[in-house]
Design goal:
elongated, about 0% strand, mainly alpha
Amino acid sequence: MVVGELHSDCAKYHEGLVKAAQSNEELHRAMEVHVANLRVLSQPLTELQKTLPSAADIPRCKMCCQAICLKGLKDAYGS
């Protein structure tokens, strides 16, 4: 009886260990994907601002802006 309980507990803990290892691997893969972005974001603000485009650098398209605004109005009012 005690051996059976020990075996059951061992199986339960082994399953938990396997799940924890899988979770750790997934977290590691996700961190690898985002580590470059995290390094950029951890810079001082003045350095971070140098990496971002300014509003003057973003090309503007009057027709595109109007289309976006119209779509927003149509979505908001169901027209």
